Amino acid sequence: MPKGLHRKKTAASRKLPLLFCLLLLLIGIGGLYLKYNQQKAVETTIVSQPKVAETTDKQTIEPKNAISASIEQKLLKKNFSGTVLVFRHGKIILNKAYGWQDQTKKIYNTVSTQYCIGSVQKGQTAYLIMQAVKSGKLFLDEKLSDFYPQIPNSEIISIKDMLNMSSGLRIDEKKIAALNTLDPKEILAETVKQTTVAKNASYSYQPVNYVLLAGILEQVYQTNYQALFEKEIIKPMKLTETSFYSTKNKKQALSYSVSPLGPLYSNTTASSYADELGTGNVFMSAEDLYHYYQAFYNDRFLTTQDRAELWRTYPGEEYAGGIYTMKDNMHGRGIKARFETIANFSKDGQTGIILLSNVWTQKNSFNGFAQQLYYQVAAAS
Question: What is the top-level taxon of the source organism (predicted)?
């Protein structure tokens, strides 16, 4: 073999082990890098999981049976915008949101979206009154004159009369709206000033009863209504998606009316919500409203006797304590600023349906429709 060729082979043979070692080194480094990245990915996943849980407190519950699936289809046909929660024998079988929370920003409603519950809040004011009665701070037969003696006939109007809206109290709400104020003290002062009384004290749905009840609560507890609501309802009932109207609260839905061009937004002033002291300036998610009603049936909050007395109607009437006692069920309804809230549930509180919508007009009310849906759920129970 020629010497030159031997030298070339020898040099080449020396380079092979070096290249092989270099290749092994690169593979080893690559493996370590890959392992490092995998470990970081695991760490990132572990770290990020609690954050997801914190931001998604309540989960969508898809239809769990044929009943809830049927209800969903009926809602879709009506282009329902809002949240529906259906419960049967104390268990939620549907909790789902539809439509826009903010159409301009393309933000969809979720099960955590909060809607103005309107007059459903009257039931919560009534609950606060009953708590005051339980603690001996107030009596249902106590007279309005003990708190607002300047109101006509106040010496013969009882707290129970006001709870049942059978007091004869009246007011021109336009005069309160003209104040254009956020100050509850101004609203209460003008309400007391403008309140009159009808000759006939039979049932008449007049929100002024509950504005004055809110004022009575403030006197009894020596605190403002909102602080009392938060202390006696939100905190003990662990309601995490309940708040008073605020432009800064991004969980509160905007409301729309129905038009030929689709949902039409129209701004509602903060003072308009403030006017509804104790009667319609609270926002809630459907699940929080459900938990509120469940708490209402818990002896820790109200005994059966307390609840029966609060919801005791006068002969020939249906309304008492912020809710209607119907033949087959309990019924709560609230409308404010194109929001509509409806709660229909069995008299034992175990089966029912809650609808919260942020698209409403007089012709597009869900009231009768929600009652039909309740009958569908109850019939299957």
Answer: Bacteria
Cα angle value 90/93/98 (rounded, 5°): 130
Q: Are 93 and 65 in contact (CB under 8 A)?
A: yes
* Domain presence at residue 374: yes
Report which of 82, 77, 84 is spatially closest to residue 98, judged by C-alpha positions: 82
The pLDDT assigned to 333 comes to 98
Pairwise CA distance, residues 313 & 316, whole Å: 8
Mind listing the pLDDT tens digit for each residue in 209-229? 999 999 999 999 999 999 999
Phi and psi for 205 in degrees, rounded to 5?
A: -70, 105
Secondary structure (DSSP) of 270-312? HHHHHTTTTTS-EEE-HHHHHHHHHHHTSTTT--HHHHHHHTP
Q: What is the CATH number of the domain that holds 175?
A: 3.40.710.10
Q: Helix, strand, or coil here: 324?
A: strand
Say how many domains are in the chain.
1
pLDDT of residue 34: 42
Q: List the domain range (segments joined by +) for residue 274.
A: 66-380
Question: Coil, helix or strand for 56?
Answer: coil
Q: Is the pLDDT of residue 45 over 50?
A: no
Asked whether residue 347 carries a pLDDT value surpassing 70, the answer given is: yes
Burial class of residue 149, CB neighbours in 10 A (0-12, 13-18, 19+): exposed
d(CA 220, CA 65): 48
Flag whether 32 is in a domain: no
Q: Residue 315 CA to chain centroid, in angstroms?
A: 32
Report the 10 Å Cβ neighbour count for 361. 13
Q: Is the dihedral of CA 328, 332, 337, 339 positive or negative?
A: negative
Across the chain, what does the average pLDDT equal?
Answer: 88
Question: Residues 6 or more apart from 271 whose CB is under 8 A from it?
Answer: 177, 179, 180, 181, 182
| Any domain includes 299 | yes
Is 238 part of any domain?
yes
